[in-house]
Structures are given as C-alpha cells and as structure tokens.
Protein 1
Amino acid sequence: MLKIKVASLFIFICLLSLCINCAGNKELIKKKARAREDLGLSYIRQGNLRAGLEHLTEAAKLDPENANIHNELGLAYRDLGEYNKSIVHFKKALSLQSEFPEGQNNFGTVYLLLKKWDPAIDCFQKAVDNILYKTPHFAYNNLGLAYHNKGNYQKAIENYQKALKLFPSYSLCHENLALTYEAINNFQASIEAYKKSIYYDPDYPTPHFNLARVYLKLNRNAEATEELRQTIEVDPEGPFAEEAKKLLKKIK
C-alpha cells in the first residue's frame, strides 16, 4: 500500500511539473511573439511596411489567437494595397475578440478604399455603438466619409458633427465637413469649416487649397490668392503647391 501511495505521489509530481513546464513554455512563446510584434510595429512606424509585415507574420505564427496581431496585420496589408489579405486578418481579429471597436473601425477603412460603402458603414456603426470604444470620433468621421460618397450628405454632416462634438480640434474632420457643405453649395458653412481646419492645423496644405477653390467659385479672388500663397508656403514642394501656382497664374 505504501508503494502504491509513493508511486501515485511520484506520478502527481511529474504531472505537476509537466503542467508548470507547459505554462512556462506558453509564457515564453507569448513573450517571443510580443517581441516580434513590437519589432514589426517599429519597422512600420519607420515606413518599412514589408519588414514590419514579415515580423508581424512571425508573431502570428507564435501566437495565432492574438487579436491585436491580426488587427496589425490587417492594417499592414491594407497599407500595402493587399485588401483581400487585409480583410482575412480583420475578420480573424474580430472572431477572436468580438468586443473590438478599434478593429471594427480599421476593418471599415478597407471597405472605404474598395468603395464598398454599405459594408464600411456597417463596420463603423458597430464601432461607435460600442460604449467601450475610446476614440469613437475616428469612426464617426469615417461614417461621414462613407455617407458622403454614397451621396447622403445630410447623414455625412450629422456624423461629422458627432465626431467634432467629441473631438473639437479634429482638423481633418472639419475639412471633410467643409467638403460636404461645398457639395451641397452651402459655401458659407464650407468656408467656416475650412477655416476651423486651418486653425487647428495651419501647416497642412489641403484646407488652404480647398478654401481657395471656394473663394474662386465666389469670385473672391483676393482671399483666394492669400490661401493659395499659404498653400505654397506650408508645403512648397508638394503637389498642392504646384496646383496653387497654376491657379495663381490664372488669377493674374
């Protein structure tokens, strides 16, 4: 009987050791995956998308059930123009973590790029409906873009306004709102929105250029000239500066 108890104790100790070793191995693998993930994101921040993608892919092999890694892979493939592969990884991320509004918003941006407005709206709406979403203004802005492209300008304006209520200094959203007001010929509202975009980000060329276009439509050439000069000043080597120079010649 004593021998049986000793044998049983030995087996229990072996099993316990095995469990501890398994847990340790899993933790080690997750640390390796995290290191690969961090390295991949570092490359992506430097603009080297392909090197970043390589390391994120290795991270996913080590930790295939990690929703964040699949989300990051989705973003990397999106930015490389590999939209089908991007969709695969966003779907995987959301299957692993259903409460993932950031992933829903990112998923929607692929459909925006594919000009599939309704699936994009569905993704963005799911993101903003999640009370735990920390940055819903991004998804509201994206909803505005999708509705604008569908031709539903009123819904676009409503969503841009929701974004700006949450984040009043969101320069890009002010510019998008201005474009929608311009599309419905509400030029005064468009001018005010462009001015707010410039106020919050004066060194970005596109609101200066777009405001100049509106002034030209209204034959306010002096104000248009000033905005075109600002466009050139803030980004002298950029494509908008070239277009601004062409318009200045026409005004003269």
Note: Residues 2-45 form the longest helix (44 residues).
Protein 2
Amino acid sequence: MRYLLLLLTLSAALTAYDENQLSSLYSGLDPNSITQHIALYKLYPDQAIGKKALQHAQLLLRKSQGEDDTLIHLPLIDQSIDGFVSFMLGKSIKEEFLDEKYLGAIETLSANLGNRSLKGYKAQTEAEVIKLGASEIDLGRAILLAQLEGEIDRKWIRNYEAQLDFLALQVIARLPSNPTHKEIIRQINQVLFFDFKYRFPNQYIQNEHHKFSQLSAVLDLKQGVCLGTTIVYLCLAQRLNLPLEIITPPGHIYVRYNDGEKITNIETTHRGIHIPNDNYYSVNVKYLKEVDIKETIGCVFLNLGTTHLMDEDYVQAKKYYQQALLYQPHDALCTMMLGYSHAFDDEKKQAKKVFNELKKLSFKDQISTLDLDAYKDYLKNKVDLKTLHAAVVPPKEQNAPELKERREILEAGTKKYPNFCAGWHMLSNIYVELSEPKKAIDALYKIHQINPDIPAVEFNLCMLYNQEFNTPAAWQHYKYCASILESHQIKLKMMDDVKRMLQSSSIEPL
C-alpha cells in the first residue's frame, strides 16, 4: 500500500520514466493487489504498461466469478477514473458516491458472494430484519438499514455495501483455489489491516466513541473500536462463507474461528492476531459469552445509548437502548442501562418497572453484576440520583478536574449512604487515577466489609496492598479472591501469576 501511495504522490515525476523503468515499476507491484494495478493504470492509461496493469486488475476481479481467463470490461476508461480509484483505495465516500455504472459493475462481480444467499440480503426495512432469525441476517444490510432514520436512502446503502464487496473481492484475489478457512482469515487480515490500514482510533478522538461503532463511519474513516472493526470483519466473513463465533467479554467484542479441535481468536483491534483466551478473562468472568449476528446488531445500539447517557441526553439514550432490545430482548446489561436512563430522566415509575424486569434476568457470564447491584439500592431509596449517576455512568474524560468533581460527589454520597457499594467502587477507581492508593484501599475495604463475596474487590485489594508493600494483607485478600473463584469452579491463569508474584516477596502463609 505504501508503494501504491508513492506511485500516486509522484505521478508527475513518473511520467518521464522510460519503458524499462516502467517495467520495473510493474514488476514491483503486489501481484495480488487490485488497487495497485488500477493505480498504475491511472498513471499510464495510454501506455502498454498501464493497459497491462488494467488487464491484470480485471483478471483479479474476475476470480470471484470462478473464470480466471475471462475478462470483464469495467467502465474504467473515462474521466471518472479518479473517483473509482479513490473508492478502491478506501477513501471516504461520505460526500461523493459511485456512479451507477460502477455500482453495477461491483454488484455484478459480487453476485456469487456468500451473503447473496441470505434472506436478509433482500431486506428493505429494519422491521423485516427484526423478524428474521440470526442465521438469515445479512449483517451489513441490517446495520445500514437500522442506522438510517426516516426515508431509506437506497444508493447510500448500496455504496457502503459496494465498499464491503470490494474488500471481499480483494481478499478473493489473494486466495488460492479452494482455500481453507485459515487461509481466508490470513488474507482478510492482510487486506483490512495492512492493505487498507484499518486501525483502532487514537486516544485523542476516542471521545467520539459512537462514530467508531457505526459501520458507515468505520468504512469512511478506516478506524473503529472493537465493535466497529469486528462488524466489518463479520461482513467480510459472511461474503466469504467463513464461519466465525462472536465473543463478548464485558466491555469488549471479538471473533474467533473454531475448527472443532482448536480455537483461533481474531483480535480486530490488534490487526487480527490471536490472543489467548486467558487474556480475555477477569476475576469476575465465569465464561466467555458467545452472541449471534442479531445480538451483535443490538450491541451497536447499546454503545450508542451509552454514548448519549454519558452526554446526559437521556431521551436519545432511551431510544437507542429500546432499539437494542429489539435485537436482544432479554439482555441484562441493556435492560439495566435503559432503567438508569429512565431514572436520570426523572421517570421513577418507568425506571422501577424496568429494574423489576431486570431482577428476572441475570448476568450469567459474571459473578457480580457490573453495577454491584446499584439499581437495587435505587429501588430501595438507599441512594440519591446525583450519587447514583456519579457511580454508574462512565466519565466522558479521564481528566483531573472531572475526576475531582466526581470524587467530591461520591465522597458526600457515600458518607450519606455508607452501604452503597457502587459508590465506594467508583471512588476507589478515582483514587487510583489520582494516585491516592491508600484512599483507594480504604474505599474497597468498605465494600469488603459490606459484601466479602465480590472477587474484583478482593483482587484489587490484593494488588493495592502489594503495591503498598503490605504483603500479609495482599496474601489475605488473594486467598479471599481464590476462595470465591473456587466456589464457582473457576481457575484462572492470572491468579497463578499473582500467586507467583506474592511468593517472590514472601512465603505463602498457611
């Protein structure tokens, strides 16, 4: 890809190259890259080397049809070539969409892709998608339909689908005949993360979290959080008939390939590398939860709802949580967040109704609920809204002024409601961020006294005490945590690592 960009940047200088130099340029192209050959054609459309590059690009595109020796004559040789090349290079199509002839060409080339056989590929409305089973849904079409409000813009949808199709065509161009699933995975990784350079957004722009979960924005920006890049990956997998499992540890999502004997994890925020299962566990996780395609759509709106909740836009937050529940109607986390949106919007009756429904659900993959049952404190009038909000709504920014303001709210709130565990827990996190470990220990110890069966609390106490060189206390809370995990029949590598760390400082107490 770097070579390709160099070609485009230096186009004026390259026009003076003689035939031998142009042949060297051609031989330096990636033989399986459609975009590099199209780019060389763009620079030299009237020369033999340019026409040769175009012919090779057409052959690569034709691989999706299963007829390597047959050329398809795409409408490339006209003044619109720049727009088509920009599209192929993955540049933003937010403002300018492809002409109909280019859309038609890509759709013709993509007619045999795997998602075309899905019932959901023909869906025209979100309502149609919601009625489908998970195995019938075309994820790309479903998310683009759900993302639109009001009148459906068909050309807008077709352009983003064409970009997904072209990514799939480029993967096919790199594949041998009858590829294995693992070969497909390797080439998806190559195309997404190296040829088109999809990346996790940098810290500076992470506050615009919602952008990087939405399919259209991820395709425009070539950047996405775990959910955004995973969705692009799944859209390609459907097109390439690649069976993948979707896994959602708390606060994360990734995909994996399971051949029945070995699991290969695909971490889309780290260029598709395999990360061992142990890395996805925390002491509160019972098992790695698997979701289906339909529930994955719900995750998009769960993320959007939480973004608006953090902005204190409770009307929009409720709208997105309710939309998420259309795809995952019994999801405990989504139900919980909807309840909080009602509570913070001063709709106590609706909040209580949702929270009473939440009691019937469970976070099956976790030992303790993420909010440490703060919603139950709300139902029992054992916390005020200001303290509740400071305890359960993630901060938009981790800067000192905001953390200190939240600390003041929680210090006052926990003084008034000393048994409010969620308040103490958030307060301990803030103390850690503000480099006040002794206060963080005190806050966590309050929870330990109220409820000694929360493994994350015991684990964090162990780590903080060890940091403060209080090894006996660290051992004590390590054993509390180990006992809780043992009662749930959970064995974690990270606990073995912590034990070895403590043993390096002192003998394990009996």
Note: The first strand starts at residue 245 and ends at 247.
Protein 3
Amino acid sequence: MALRMKKTDFQNYRVCPAYGWTAQHRPHDLPPATDPMEQWRARFGNEVDALAREILPGGVLIDALDMDVAVEQTLNAIERGVTRIYQGTFITDEGFLARADILDLRRDGWTLIEVKSSSVGEDGKVDRDHLWDAAFQREVIERVGLPVARVVLLLLNNGYVRGATLDVSHLLVEVDVTDKVQALAADLHVEMGAHHAALHQEAPPACQCARKTKGNWCPVRTAAVDPRGTIYEIPWIRAKQVEAFLDRGWMWLEDVDDTSLLNDQMLAGFENLLLTEEHIDLPQLRAFLEGISYPVHFLDYETVVMPIPRFRNVRPNAQDPFQFSLHVEEIDTAWHVEFLHEDPTLAHAPRWLAALQRVIGNMGSVVVWNASFERSRNREMAERYPEYATFLLGLNDRMIDLMDVVTKRMYVSPAFRGSASLKVVQPVLAPALDYSDLWVGDGSGAQAAWLEAMLPETTHARRNTLFSALRTYCGYDTEVMVVIWKRLREIAGLR
C-alpha cells in the first residue's frame, strides 16, 4: 500500500523530519508514550467533536475505517447534494490524506470546520499549530477538486462559564481563520513537497533538533541523546541561548566561558550544574526559615483540566482543584488532614473550599512548593466563588514557597542537576520517602486516576483503589515538604 500522509504525520514532520519519517516507517523505534493523560485527551477530543455535531446537526457521517471506502462515501455524499458532512475523507495522488471534522456548504461555498478541544480567549488568538492543521486539510481537499471558500476553527470559548446546565451554543465558538490559513499557503506547498520527498527516502533524514531546547526535542533525539553535562541541561535556557552557544562551539557545560547571554535565573541554574559539592548560604537560609511562623501549614493541591466543564462556575480547560493535603506543624504537636472529592454527581470546588477553610487556621505560614501554582488556583477560585475570596487571598498573603531554598541558592546539591523539582530534591533531603514506590506518582497520573474514578462504569473496588492511591500521593507531597523543612532547620542550626 502507498504511504498515506495525514495531518498528524505532517505535524510530526514539521516538528522534525527525522521524527516524521520514523513515526511512519519505524514507530517501534520511538519511546513509548508514558503520559497517563494522553488517552484522556483523545477521549475529551471525541466529546468535543460530539458537541460540535450537536450544534451543527443533520450531517452525514463518513464512518468507514478503510480510507479508500471513506473517500468513495464522501464523493457519493457530495454528488447526492449532501450539504453537511462529518469526517469527509480525501486522498491526493501523492498520498496526502485529510479527514475533515465538518464540511458545511454555506452561501459562499464549502466551509471547512476543524474542531479543537483547546480554548480561544477574548483576543481571538489561536494556536499556530491549529492553523497549520487547517491549512493542510484545505490544501488536500482542494487538490482533489473541491473548492473551500472559508476555513473555520471551532474552539472552546474561554469566556464561557458553565451555569446549572451546559449551554453548548455558548461553549463553542467559530473563529474564521481563512486569511491566516491563506497566508501559510506558499510555505505549506514547500513543506508538503519536502515532507513527501523525505518520507519516501529509504533512510531517515537527519534530526534537526540540536538547536532547540531539550523540552522541544523530537522523540527521536530524546531517545538517543543524553543531555547530562551539556548546555541543554541549563534550567530555563531558551533556543536563542542554545543557538548562540552552539555557534561558539560550546555544547558541554565546561566549554562555556562567557555567561553574559544568560539571565539571572539561567545563570543560577548554570552555576548549580557546575557544583561538585553542596552549596549552602547559611545566613540567607536561616533568615528564610525564621520567616516561617507557627503553626506551619504545608499545603498541596491536585487539579484536573477538562475541556468541557462538568460543574457550575467552571470555564473550559480550567485548572479545577479536586484534592488537597494539609500537614500542620505546631510547636509541640503535628497533624494531617486531607480532602478528596469522591462524588461524581456534585461539584467539587465548593466542597473543596469549605473543607479547606474549615481545617486551615488563620494564623501562621502556608508553605507550598512552587507557590505560583497554588496562588493562581486561589485567585481563580476567589473569582469563581467571591464568598471565599477573603479567605483565599488571605492564604496567598501568608504563602511561602519552600522551593525558593533551591531557586535562590540557599541550599543546592550537585544531585539536583540544576532542577528545583520536589521529586529531584526529595532523594537528597528526604531520602526515606520514595515517590517511585507510589502507584500514582505525579500530577498527570493523579488527574488520570481521579477521572477514571469519576466514571460511572468504574467498579466500587477499582474506585476505592484509585482513591487510596490519590490520598497517598497528595499526602506524600506535603509529608516530603515537612521532612525537607525539618532537615533544612537542622542544617541551619535552628531548633
């Protein structure tokens, strides 16, 4: 069978030609997907597709799994005068394949509607990758002879706040991107031609990710290259600095003899990577720790992101807290309390807020790891639930970021490798606790576990297993912070 190149394949090629080729010819060479939320994002996408068909009803669905049959069904529908088609399928002579989410025959001709589960804000900005997707789809459709008059993205409206029921007519919004797609046409023709040529080579093209930051490497390079000891390890480094260093022949950290291109944050990370022994700034560390007042509340949130808001007062794709863990250290005692929303029929945010307000005191410090996350959630909750605004913004005023110990170089270990992640710091300062022993071990896993627990078909036994794992994981985060805080006090000579 001739190669078929759909928009996903094209986007893979745009990420890196080596990735595009490998994904088509040797997918087993790519590292396996490890993000437990990946299947949920696909599920959410299908749910948004279903809602799109609800507000644009009456179309004919092209559901054949065989693409040649799907093409025939699509052409037959057009010939019969069908004016709305779901999953219309087209294949060019070169093998480019498009399955249009919705084709709608309107007054000025066919409109291509691409449905996305991401949000568009009031400024109307859309993800540039979505534009490339739509441009590819239109190009394929027009190459087989069907003119496309308009191109529209159907996106989630970030300004929509769910009421008692879901108002689909306001949840989804059409954004006309015809002009933006047309502006990509010339570059698209070049890239599609290069993509076609690259995919038909016997050997993969060279990976082109060397001049990108590590987080933007394609899976081919990620699987093959160890970044340790190189400039790619520098925290927060950007492509501009990577390119400048490589242009000077500096790939290894030890090669760099001019750090003027690094901002203060990058420079601190660079210096941390060069450490051969612990770095402790005792005066700064003592002052920081003495600024934490009793009772000390160690707090951690877990949140879920759902494109289609399930509960009242929630926006599409909002970070919605469903769990917290709170360890409280008083001078002569300590205690722990937690909240996990377990009822799929009730909104979790009001119950979460009421529980947190009930158990956390109005005196003493609130200690978190990476305060920007919890502060942002508190501000969002204060806007959604003004009756809790004073409480939530008060928490922000009392909040102290324990991560500052690392990011502000009060205590740094070579084992951190420039990172300030709690899971990197834990083995050094709280070695008795080990995240690798946990069934749920990160935020993505926590989201996936909670979402599965909320499914009506999940058995009672399975739900209890998931809830137990979630309680353990969230409780671990605050327990680790307590142990780190106590260890830092020992290092600083505080009792």
Note: Residues 243 and 265 are 18 Å apart (CA to CA).
